[in-house]
Known about the structure:
single chain, alpha+beta, BirA Bifunctional Protein, domain 2, Herpes Virus-1, Rossmann fold, 3 domains, five-stranded mixed beta sheet, 23 strands, 24% strand, globular, binds adenosine-5'-triphosphate
Amino acid sequence: MAQEDVFKKVVSHCKEYGFVFPSSDIYDGLGAVYDYGQNGVEMKNNIKQYWWQSMVLMHENIVGIDSAIFMHPTIWKASGHVDAFNDPLIDNRDSKKRYRADVLIEEQIAKYEEKVEKEVAKARKRFGDAFDEQKYRETSPKVAEELAKRDALHERYSKAMNAMDLEELRQIILDEEIVCPISGTRNWTEVRQFNLMFKTEMGSTADGASTIYLRPETAQGIFVNYLNVQKTGRMKIPFGIAQIGKAFRNEIVARQFIFRMREFEQMEMQFFIKPGTELDWFKTWKQTRMAWHQNLGFGAENYRFHDHEKLAHYANAATDIEFKMPFGFKEVEGIHSRTNFDLSQHEKYSGKSIKYFDPELNESYTPYVIETSIGVDRMFLSVMCHSYQEEQLENGETRVVLRLPAALAPVKLAVMPLTKKDGLPEKAREIIDDLKFHFNCQYDEKDSIGKRYRRQDAIGTPYCVTVDHQSLEDNTVTIRFRDTMEQERVNISDLLGIIEDKVTITSLLKKLK
Ligand code: ATP
Protein backbone atom coordinates (compact mmCIF):
# COMPACT_ATOMS: atom_id res chain seq x y z
CA MET A 1 0.00 0.00 0.00
CA ALA A 2 1.34 3.48 -0.83
CA GLN A 3 2.47 5.32 2.26
CA GLU A 4 0.11 8.23 1.59
CA ASP A 5 -2.78 5.79 1.57
CA VAL A 6 -1.63 4.30 4.86
CA PHE A 7 -1.76 7.71 6.45
CA LYS A 8 -5.24 8.46 5.11
CA LYS A 9 -6.44 5.10 6.33
CA VAL A 10 -4.96 5.62 9.78
CA VAL A 11 -6.74 8.97 10.07
CA SER A 12 -10.13 7.53 9.15
CA HIS A 13 -9.54 4.41 11.25
CA CYS A 14 -8.82 6.63 14.26
CA LYS A 15 -12.20 8.27 13.84
CA GLU A 16 -14.19 5.16 12.98
CA TYR A 17 -12.93 3.19 15.96
CA GLY A 18 -13.11 5.88 18.65
CA PHE A 19 -9.44 6.80 18.90
CA VAL A 20 -9.32 10.42 17.68
CA PHE A 21 -12.11 12.79 16.63
CA PRO A 22 -11.81 16.29 15.19
CA SER A 23 -12.56 18.76 17.97
CA SER A 24 -16.05 20.31 17.84
CA ASP A 25 -16.95 17.76 15.20
CA ILE A 26 -20.64 18.67 14.95
CA TYR A 27 -19.55 22.26 14.21
CA ASP A 28 -17.26 20.98 11.43
CA GLY A 29 -14.15 20.93 13.56
CA LEU A 30 -11.57 23.45 14.75
CA GLY A 31 -8.25 23.77 12.95
CA ALA A 32 -5.57 21.44 14.28
CA VAL A 33 -7.42 20.63 17.50
CA TYR A 34 -8.48 17.05 18.22
CA ASP A 35 -10.28 15.03 20.88
CA TYR A 36 -9.42 11.53 21.99
CA GLY A 37 -12.27 9.03 22.05
CA GLN A 38 -12.98 6.03 24.22
CA ASN A 39 -10.16 3.91 22.82
CA GLY A 40 -7.78 6.78 22.15
CA VAL A 41 -7.82 7.98 25.73
CA GLU A 42 -6.92 4.50 27.00
CA MET A 43 -4.01 4.19 24.62
CA LYS A 44 -2.85 7.73 25.33
CA ASN A 45 -2.94 7.05 29.06
CA ASN A 46 -0.88 3.90 28.48
CA ILE A 47 1.75 5.86 26.55
CA LYS A 48 1.88 8.42 29.35
CA GLN A 49 2.21 5.74 31.97
CA TYR A 50 4.99 4.03 30.06
CA TRP A 51 6.89 7.31 29.96
CA TRP A 52 6.10 8.40 33.52
CA GLN A 53 7.01 5.10 35.08
CA SER A 54 10.20 4.78 33.04
CA MET A 55 11.24 8.18 34.38
CA VAL A 56 9.88 8.44 37.90
CA LEU A 57 9.65 4.80 39.01
CA MET A 58 12.79 3.58 37.32
CA HIS A 59 15.03 6.45 38.47
CA GLU A 60 15.54 7.16 42.16
CA ASN A 61 16.71 10.65 41.30
CA ILE A 62 13.77 11.72 39.14
CA VAL A 63 10.55 13.07 40.64
CA GLY A 64 7.42 14.44 38.99
CA ILE A 65 5.36 17.61 39.26
CA ASP A 66 2.17 18.99 37.77
CA SER A 67 2.43 22.74 37.32
CA ALA A 68 -0.32 25.13 36.20
CA ILE A 69 -0.83 26.11 32.58
CA PHE A 70 -1.16 29.78 33.52
CA MET A 71 2.08 31.27 34.73
CA HIS A 72 3.45 34.68 35.58
CA PRO A 73 3.88 36.53 32.27
CA THR A 74 7.45 37.54 33.11
CA ILE A 75 8.40 33.87 32.87
CA TRP A 76 7.97 34.04 29.09
CA LYS A 77 9.99 37.20 28.90
CA ALA A 78 12.78 35.51 30.87
CA SER A 79 12.68 32.33 28.82
CA GLY A 80 12.94 34.29 25.57
CA HIS A 81 9.59 33.13 24.23
CA VAL A 82 8.04 36.61 24.03
CA ASP A 83 10.87 37.86 21.84
CA ALA A 84 12.05 34.78 20.04
CA PHE A 85 9.43 32.02 19.88
CA ASN A 86 8.79 32.76 16.25
CA ASP A 87 8.50 30.86 13.01
CA PRO A 88 9.36 32.45 9.67
CA LEU A 89 6.21 32.43 7.56
CA ILE A 90 5.64 33.03 3.88
CA ASP A 91 2.42 33.24 1.87
CA ASN A 92 1.71 32.25 -1.68
CA ARG A 93 -0.27 35.08 -3.25
CA ASP A 94 -2.16 32.83 -5.66
CA SER A 95 -3.33 30.06 -3.38
CA LYS A 96 -3.46 32.35 -0.31
CA LYS A 97 -1.85 29.47 1.58
CA ARG A 98 0.64 30.10 4.34
CA TYR A 99 3.82 28.09 4.84
CA ARG A 100 6.77 27.96 7.17
CA ALA A 101 9.73 29.14 5.12
CA ASP A 102 12.10 26.84 7.02
CA VAL A 103 9.88 23.81 6.33
CA LEU A 104 9.71 24.56 2.59
CA ILE A 105 13.50 24.65 2.44
CA GLU A 106 13.95 21.54 4.57
CA GLU A 107 11.58 19.68 2.25
CA GLN A 108 13.71 20.78 -0.67
CA ILE A 109 16.82 19.39 1.08
CA ALA A 110 14.96 16.12 1.59
CA LYS A 111 14.12 16.05 -2.12
CA TYR A 112 17.82 15.98 -3.02
CA GLU A 113 18.25 13.07 -0.62
CA GLU A 114 15.30 11.27 -2.18
CA LYS A 115 16.89 11.71 -5.61
CA VAL A 116 20.05 10.04 -4.35
CA GLU A 117 18.05 7.13 -2.97
CA LYS A 118 16.22 6.78 -6.29
CA GLU A 119 19.52 6.66 -8.18
CA VAL A 120 20.78 3.98 -5.82
CA ALA A 121 17.59 1.95 -6.18
CA LYS A 122 17.77 2.17 -9.97
CA ALA A 123 21.38 1.01 -9.97
CA ARG A 124 20.56 -1.85 -7.60
CA LYS A 125 17.94 -3.06 -10.05
CA ARG A 126 20.30 -2.70 -13.00
CA PHE A 127 23.28 -4.50 -11.46
CA GLY A 128 21.40 -7.14 -9.49
CA ASP A 129 23.49 -9.32 -7.19
CA ALA A 130 26.77 -7.78 -8.31
CA PHE A 131 25.74 -4.38 -6.95
CA ASP A 132 28.25 -2.79 -4.57
CA GLU A 133 26.15 -0.08 -2.97
CA GLN A 134 28.89 1.64 -1.03
CA LYS A 135 31.13 1.89 -4.09
CA TYR A 136 28.25 3.22 -6.17
CA ARG A 137 27.46 5.90 -3.61
CA GLU A 138 31.11 6.95 -3.56
CA THR A 139 31.72 7.00 -7.31
CA SER A 140 28.48 7.77 -9.16
CA PRO A 141 28.66 11.28 -10.71
CA LYS A 142 24.86 11.62 -10.47
CA VAL A 143 24.88 10.87 -6.75
CA ALA A 144 27.76 13.29 -6.25
CA GLU A 145 25.90 16.00 -8.12
CA GLU A 146 22.75 15.68 -5.96
CA LEU A 147 24.76 15.53 -2.75
CA ALA A 148 26.69 18.65 -3.72
CA LYS A 149 23.42 20.49 -4.35
CA ARG A 150 22.07 19.29 -1.03
CA ASP A 151 25.18 20.34 0.88
CA ALA A 152 25.30 23.77 -0.70
CA LEU A 153 21.65 24.37 0.10
CA HIS A 154 22.13 23.07 3.59
CA GLU A 155 24.97 25.43 4.29
CA ARG A 156 23.16 28.45 2.90
CA TYR A 157 20.01 27.56 4.85
CA SER A 158 21.87 27.03 8.16
CA LYS A 159 23.55 30.40 7.81
CA ALA A 160 20.26 32.15 7.06
CA MET A 161 18.49 30.45 9.99
CA ASN A 162 21.28 31.18 12.44
CA ALA A 163 21.22 34.83 11.48
CA MET A 164 17.40 34.77 11.11
CA ASP A 165 17.97 36.50 7.80
CA LEU A 166 14.41 36.60 6.45
CA GLU A 167 15.31 38.08 3.08
CA GLU A 168 17.86 35.36 2.48
CA LEU A 169 15.29 32.68 3.37
CA ARG A 170 13.00 34.13 0.71
CA GLN A 171 15.83 34.33 -1.79
CA ILE A 172 16.62 30.64 -1.19
CA ILE A 173 12.99 29.74 -1.91
CA LEU A 174 13.13 31.72 -5.16
CA ASP A 175 16.56 30.41 -6.21
CA GLU A 176 15.54 26.82 -5.54
CA GLU A 177 12.40 27.43 -7.59
CA ILE A 178 10.20 26.06 -4.83
CA VAL A 179 6.55 26.17 -5.86
CA CYS A 180 3.39 26.24 -3.77
CA PRO A 181 1.97 22.70 -3.77
CA ILE A 182 -1.56 24.08 -4.19
CA SER A 183 -1.23 26.78 -6.86
CA GLY A 184 1.97 25.48 -8.40
CA THR A 185 3.31 29.06 -8.63
CA ARG A 186 6.31 30.93 -7.23
CA ASN A 187 4.37 34.07 -6.39
CA TRP A 188 5.70 34.39 -2.81
CA THR A 189 5.30 37.24 -0.31
CA GLU A 190 8.06 38.47 1.98
CA VAL A 191 9.05 36.23 4.88
CA ARG A 192 7.77 37.47 8.25
CA GLN A 193 8.23 36.41 11.86
CA PHE A 194 5.19 35.03 13.64
CA ASN A 195 5.00 34.49 17.41
CA LEU A 196 3.46 31.15 18.28
CA MET A 197 2.17 31.91 21.76
CA PHE A 198 -1.56 32.21 22.48
CA LYS A 199 -2.48 35.17 24.66
CA THR A 200 -5.38 35.72 26.99
CA GLU A 201 -6.39 38.09 29.76
CA MET A 202 -6.41 37.37 33.45
CA GLY A 203 -8.44 39.51 35.85
CA SER A 204 -11.92 40.93 35.61
CA THR A 205 -11.52 44.63 34.89
CA ALA A 206 -10.10 46.11 31.75
CA ASP A 207 -7.61 48.16 33.79
CA GLY A 208 -6.55 45.45 36.16
CA ALA A 209 -6.35 42.65 33.62
CA SER A 210 -2.95 41.46 32.57
CA THR A 211 -1.95 39.60 29.47
CA ILE A 212 -0.94 36.05 30.14
CA TYR A 213 0.10 33.27 27.81
CA LEU A 214 -0.96 29.70 27.39
CA ARG A 215 2.30 27.85 27.92
CA PRO A 216 4.00 26.78 24.69
CA GLU A 217 6.05 24.16 26.57
CA THR A 218 5.77 22.54 29.98
CA ALA A 219 9.48 22.96 30.72
CA GLN A 220 9.22 26.44 32.25
CA GLY A 221 6.86 25.09 34.93
CA ILE A 222 9.72 22.80 35.94
CA PHE A 223 12.38 25.53 35.95
CA VAL A 224 10.37 27.87 38.14
CA ASN A 225 9.72 25.01 40.59
CA TYR A 226 13.36 23.92 40.65
CA LEU A 227 14.05 25.47 44.07
CA ASN A 228 10.79 24.20 45.61
CA VAL A 229 11.46 20.63 44.55
CA GLN A 230 15.18 20.64 45.25
CA LYS A 231 14.64 21.91 48.78
CA THR A 232 11.51 20.00 49.80
CA GLY A 233 12.69 16.79 48.16
CA ARG A 234 16.27 17.26 49.44
CA MET A 235 17.39 16.45 45.93
CA LYS A 236 21.06 16.11 45.17
CA ILE A 237 22.55 16.85 41.77
CA PRO A 238 22.30 15.06 39.39
CA PHE A 239 18.52 14.85 39.59
CA GLY A 240 15.54 15.27 37.30
CA ILE A 241 12.01 16.67 37.37
CA ALA A 242 9.41 15.18 35.03
CA GLN A 243 6.08 16.56 33.96
CA ILE A 244 3.25 15.65 31.59
CA GLY A 245 0.88 18.38 30.50
CA LYS A 246 -0.81 20.43 27.84
CA ALA A 247 1.06 22.94 25.71
CA PHE A 248 -0.30 25.40 23.16
CA ARG A 249 1.21 26.78 19.97
CA ASN A 250 -0.50 28.85 17.34
CA GLU A 251 1.12 26.81 14.57
CA ILE A 252 1.18 28.50 11.17
CA VAL A 253 0.77 25.34 9.20
CA ALA A 254 -1.18 22.78 11.08
CA ARG A 255 -1.56 19.75 8.87
CA GLN A 256 -0.90 16.07 9.15
CA PHE A 257 -3.57 15.26 11.70
CA ILE A 258 -2.25 15.03 15.28
CA PHE A 259 1.36 15.48 14.19
CA ARG A 260 1.11 19.25 14.47
CA MET A 261 -1.65 20.50 16.72
CA ARG A 262 -2.42 23.84 18.28
CA GLU A 263 -3.24 22.21 21.62
CA PHE A 264 -1.14 19.18 22.43
CA GLU A 265 0.48 17.32 25.26
CA GLN A 266 4.15 17.05 26.18
CA MET A 267 6.12 14.74 28.42
CA GLU A 268 9.21 16.63 29.51
CA MET A 269 12.03 15.90 31.88
CA GLN A 270 14.67 18.40 32.93
CA PHE A 271 17.80 16.81 34.34
CA PHE A 272 19.89 19.13 36.54
CA ILE A 273 23.62 18.54 36.48
CA LYS A 274 27.02 19.97 37.35
CA PRO A 275 28.39 22.41 34.73
CA GLY A 276 30.97 20.70 32.54
CA THR A 277 29.25 17.29 32.68
CA GLU A 278 26.57 18.18 30.16
CA LEU A 279 27.96 16.49 27.08
CA ASP A 280 28.32 13.16 28.91
CA TRP A 281 24.79 13.41 30.26
CA PHE A 282 23.53 14.43 26.83
CA LYS A 283 24.98 11.23 25.41
CA THR A 284 23.51 9.14 28.22
CA TRP A 285 20.03 10.59 27.75
CA LYS A 286 20.20 10.13 23.99
CA GLN A 287 20.84 6.43 24.52
CA THR A 288 18.28 6.07 27.31
CA ARG A 289 15.54 7.70 25.29
CA MET A 290 16.31 5.78 22.10
CA ALA A 291 16.18 2.53 24.11
CA TRP A 292 12.75 3.54 25.46
CA HIS A 293 11.43 3.98 21.91
CA GLN A 294 13.00 0.84 20.50
CA ASN A 295 11.72 -1.21 23.41
CA LEU A 296 8.28 -1.09 21.75
CA GLY A 297 9.59 -3.48 19.12
CA PHE A 298 8.91 -1.40 16.00
CA GLY A 299 12.40 -2.10 14.58
CA ALA A 300 15.56 -0.04 15.02
CA GLU A 301 15.54 0.85 11.31
CA ASN A 302 12.50 3.04 11.89
CA TYR A 303 14.34 5.45 14.17
CA ARG A 304 17.20 7.84 13.68
CA PHE A 305 18.85 10.78 15.40
CA HIS A 306 18.83 14.10 13.66
CA ASP A 307 21.34 16.51 15.12
CA HIS A 308 20.31 20.15 15.01
CA GLU A 309 21.99 22.45 12.52
CA LYS A 310 20.65 25.51 14.17
CA LEU A 311 21.10 25.48 17.91
CA ALA A 312 18.75 27.59 19.97
CA HIS A 313 20.65 30.48 21.58
CA TYR A 314 20.67 28.66 24.94
CA ALA A 315 21.67 25.18 23.75
CA ASN A 316 25.12 23.68 23.26
CA ALA A 317 23.90 20.37 21.81
CA ALA A 318 20.56 19.18 20.49
CA THR A 319 19.19 16.21 18.65
CA ASP A 320 15.81 14.86 17.60
CA ILE A 321 14.67 11.29 17.70
CA GLU A 322 12.88 10.80 14.41
CA PHE A 323 10.46 8.02 13.59
CA LYS A 324 9.57 6.79 10.13
CA MET A 325 6.02 8.02 9.67
CA PRO A 326 4.14 7.36 6.40
CA PHE A 327 5.16 10.91 5.38
CA GLY A 328 8.87 10.40 6.10
CA PHE A 329 11.21 10.45 9.08
CA LYS A 330 9.78 13.01 11.51
CA GLU A 331 10.67 14.37 14.93
CA VAL A 332 8.93 12.69 17.83
CA GLU A 333 11.23 13.77 20.63
CA GLY A 334 13.86 16.44 21.21
CA ILE A 335 16.87 16.08 23.50
CA HIS A 336 18.56 19.34 24.34
CA SER A 337 21.54 20.43 26.37
CA ARG A 338 20.13 23.75 27.59
CA THR A 339 23.17 24.92 29.63
CA ASN A 340 22.14 27.06 32.64
CA PHE A 341 20.28 29.46 30.40
CA ASP A 342 16.78 29.05 31.82
CA LEU A 343 17.71 29.01 35.50
CA SER A 344 20.04 32.00 35.07
CA GLN A 345 17.36 33.94 33.26
CA HIS A 346 14.86 33.22 36.04
CA GLU A 347 17.46 34.30 38.59
CA LYS A 348 17.87 37.54 36.71
CA TYR A 349 14.18 38.29 36.18
CA SER A 350 12.89 37.12 39.57
CA GLY A 351 15.78 38.46 41.60
CA LYS A 352 15.94 35.13 43.54
CA SER A 353 19.09 33.10 43.77
CA ILE A 354 18.70 29.69 42.11
CA LYS A 355 22.05 28.25 43.09
CA TYR A 356 22.86 24.74 44.18
CA PHE A 357 25.34 24.20 46.97
CA ASP A 358 27.40 21.20 46.03
CA PRO A 359 28.63 19.60 49.27
CA GLU A 360 31.26 17.55 47.43
CA LEU A 361 32.83 20.54 45.72
CA ASN A 362 32.00 22.85 48.60
CA GLU A 363 30.80 25.50 46.16
CA SER A 364 27.61 26.90 44.69
CA TYR A 365 26.62 27.01 41.03
CA THR A 366 23.63 27.40 38.77
CA PRO A 367 22.95 23.87 37.50
CA TYR A 368 23.13 22.93 33.84
CA VAL A 369 20.21 21.09 32.27
CA ILE A 370 19.62 18.25 29.85
CA GLU A 371 16.04 18.19 28.61
CA THR A 372 14.14 15.33 27.05
CA SER A 373 10.90 16.49 25.45
CA ILE A 374 8.43 14.23 23.69
CA GLY A 375 4.97 14.93 22.31
CA VAL A 376 2.33 12.48 23.52
CA ASP A 377 0.27 12.99 20.38
CA ARG A 378 3.17 12.44 17.99
CA MET A 379 4.06 9.34 19.91
CA PHE A 380 0.45 8.21 19.61
CA LEU A 381 0.53 8.83 15.86
CA SER A 382 3.77 6.89 15.42
CA VAL A 383 2.33 3.91 17.33
CA MET A 384 -0.84 4.02 15.25
CA CYS A 385 0.93 4.31 11.90
CA HIS A 386 3.28 1.47 12.67
CA SER A 387 0.57 -0.82 14.03
CA TYR A 388 -2.06 -0.36 11.34
CA GLN A 389 -2.06 -3.30 8.95
CA GLU A 390 -4.32 -4.74 6.33
CA GLU A 391 -3.80 -8.46 5.95
CA GLN A 392 -4.90 -10.79 3.23
CA LEU A 393 -6.21 -13.96 4.85
CA GLU A 394 -6.11 -17.47 3.42
CA ASN A 395 -9.88 -17.47 2.90
CA GLY A 396 -9.56 -14.41 0.66
CA GLU A 397 -10.88 -11.95 3.23
CA THR A 398 -8.97 -8.89 4.37
CA ARG A 399 -8.59 -8.10 8.02
CA VAL A 400 -7.61 -4.73 9.45
CA VAL A 401 -5.55 -5.25 12.55
CA LEU A 402 -3.77 -2.89 14.89
CA ARG A 403 -0.65 -4.75 15.95
CA LEU A 404 -0.24 -2.55 19.00
CA PRO A 405 2.28 -3.44 21.67
CA ALA A 406 -0.04 -5.24 24.12
CA ALA A 407 0.89 -2.89 26.95
CA LEU A 408 -0.36 0.10 24.93
CA ALA A 409 -3.57 -1.50 23.62
CA PRO A 410 -6.74 0.19 24.92
CA VAL A 411 -8.50 -3.10 25.64
CA LYS A 412 -6.47 -6.11 26.74
CA LEU A 413 -9.11 -8.80 26.72
CA ALA A 414 -12.51 -9.20 25.09
CA VAL A 415 -14.78 -11.84 26.59
CA MET A 416 -17.43 -13.25 24.26
CA PRO A 417 -20.21 -15.69 25.04
CA LEU A 418 -20.84 -17.90 22.01
CA THR A 419 -24.57 -17.31 22.36
CA LYS A 420 -26.71 -14.94 24.38
CA LYS A 421 -28.42 -17.74 26.30
CA ASP A 422 -27.92 -20.94 28.33
CA GLY A 423 -25.97 -19.13 31.05
CA LEU A 424 -23.06 -18.27 28.75
CA PRO A 425 -23.35 -14.46 29.23
CA GLU A 426 -23.32 -14.99 33.01
CA LYS A 427 -20.22 -17.12 32.78
CA ALA A 428 -18.52 -14.48 30.59
CA ARG A 429 -19.40 -11.77 33.11
CA GLU A 430 -17.93 -13.87 35.90
CA ILE A 431 -14.61 -13.93 34.06
CA ILE A 432 -14.67 -10.18 33.55
CA ASP A 433 -15.63 -9.51 37.16
CA ASP A 434 -12.55 -11.39 38.20
CA LEU A 435 -10.09 -9.91 35.70
CA LYS A 436 -11.27 -6.30 35.53
CA PHE A 437 -9.19 -5.43 38.58
CA HIS A 438 -6.03 -6.31 36.67
CA PHE A 439 -6.55 -4.87 33.18
CA ASN A 440 -9.12 -3.40 30.83
CA CYS A 441 -11.67 -6.02 29.71
CA GLN A 442 -14.57 -5.67 27.30
CA TYR A 443 -17.72 -7.74 27.12
CA ASP A 444 -19.03 -8.38 23.60
CA GLU A 445 -22.02 -10.54 22.71
CA LYS A 446 -23.32 -8.96 19.49
CA ASP A 447 -22.89 -10.48 15.98
CA SER A 448 -21.06 -13.63 14.94
CA ILE A 449 -17.83 -14.59 16.68
CA GLY A 450 -15.94 -13.83 13.44
CA LYS A 451 -17.28 -10.29 13.33
CA ARG A 452 -16.49 -9.80 17.00
CA TYR A 453 -12.89 -10.92 16.43
CA ARG A 454 -12.56 -8.40 13.57
CA ARG A 455 -13.89 -5.62 15.76
CA GLN A 456 -11.32 -6.41 18.43
CA ASP A 457 -8.52 -6.74 15.84
CA ALA A 458 -9.40 -3.27 14.60
CA ILE A 459 -8.81 -1.73 18.03
CA GLY A 460 -5.75 -3.88 18.70
CA THR A 461 -7.10 -6.10 21.50
CA PRO A 462 -4.37 -8.71 22.01
CA TYR A 463 -6.61 -11.44 23.51
CA CYS A 464 -10.17 -12.65 22.98
CA VAL A 465 -11.81 -15.35 25.02
CA THR A 466 -14.86 -17.29 23.87
CA VAL A 467 -17.17 -18.87 26.39
CA ASP A 468 -19.12 -21.91 25.08
CA HIS A 469 -21.20 -24.74 26.50
CA GLN A 470 -18.13 -26.75 27.40
CA SER A 471 -17.00 -23.81 29.58
CA LEU A 472 -20.00 -24.44 31.84
CA GLU A 473 -18.93 -28.04 32.32
CA ASP A 474 -15.17 -27.88 32.72
CA ASN A 475 -14.30 -24.21 33.27
CA THR A 476 -12.23 -23.96 30.11
CA VAL A 477 -12.46 -21.33 27.37
CA THR A 478 -10.93 -20.70 23.96
CA ILE A 479 -8.33 -17.98 23.97
CA ARG A 480 -7.53 -16.41 20.62
CA PHE A 481 -4.34 -14.46 19.95
CA ARG A 482 -4.63 -11.31 17.84
CA ASP A 483 -1.39 -11.55 15.90
CA THR A 484 -1.36 -15.23 14.97
CA MET A 485 -5.14 -15.74 15.16
CA GLU A 486 -4.33 -19.06 16.77
CA GLN A 487 -6.71 -20.48 19.34
CA GLU A 488 -6.09 -22.59 22.41
CA ARG A 489 -8.29 -24.22 25.02
CA VAL A 490 -7.25 -23.08 28.48
CA ASN A 491 -8.53 -23.12 32.04
CA ILE A 492 -10.31 -19.98 33.17
CA SER A 493 -8.13 -19.96 36.27
CA ASP A 494 -5.03 -19.70 34.02
CA LEU A 495 -6.20 -16.60 32.13
CA LEU A 496 -4.73 -14.08 34.55
CA GLY A 497 -1.34 -15.75 34.41
CA ILE A 498 -1.34 -15.96 30.61
CA ILE A 499 -2.45 -12.40 29.99
CA GLU A 500 -1.31 -10.14 32.81
CA ASP A 501 2.38 -10.62 32.27
CA LYS A 502 2.12 -9.47 28.68
CA VAL A 503 -0.21 -6.50 28.92
CA THR A 504 0.98 -4.39 31.82
CA ILE A 505 3.27 -1.39 31.62
CA THR A 506 5.48 -3.29 34.05
CA SER A 507 6.07 -5.92 31.37
CA LEU A 508 7.43 -3.20 29.07
CA LEU A 509 9.54 -1.64 31.81
CA LYS A 510 11.11 -4.98 32.69
CA LYS A 511 12.29 -5.36 29.11
CA LEU A 512 13.98 -1.97 29.33
CA LYS A 513 16.38 -3.11 32.01
P1 ATP B 1 8.70 21.12 15.22
O1 ATP B 1 10.08 21.45 14.70
O2 ATP B 1 8.10 19.90 14.62
O3 ATP B 1 7.79 22.31 15.25
P2 ATP B 1 9.79 21.57 17.79
O4 ATP B 1 11.22 21.29 17.54
O5 ATP B 1 9.32 22.98 17.85
O6 ATP B 1 8.90 20.74 16.75
P3 ATP B 1 9.95 21.07 20.56
O7 ATP B 1 9.78 22.47 20.93
O8 ATP B 1 11.31 20.46 20.67
O9 ATP B 1 9.36 20.83 19.09
O10 ATP B 1 8.88 20.20 21.36
C1 ATP B 1 9.14 18.91 21.85
C2 ATP B 1 8.16 17.90 21.32
O11 ATP B 1 6.82 18.35 21.45
C3 ATP B 1 8.32 17.60 19.84
O12 ATP B 1 9.32 16.64 19.63
C4 ATP B 1 6.95 17.07 19.47
O13 ATP B 1 6.84 15.69 19.77
C5 ATP B 1 6.03 17.84 20.39
N1 ATP B 1 5.39 18.94 19.66
C6 ATP B 1 5.89 20.17 19.42
N2 ATP B 1 5.02 20.90 18.74
C7 ATP B 1 3.92 20.14 18.54
C8 ATP B 1 2.66 20.34 17.91
N3 ATP B 1 2.34 21.51 17.36
N4 ATP B 1 1.77 19.32 17.91
C9 ATP B 1 2.06 18.13 18.48
N5 ATP B 1 3.23 17.89 19.08
C10 ATP B 1 4.16 18.87 19.13
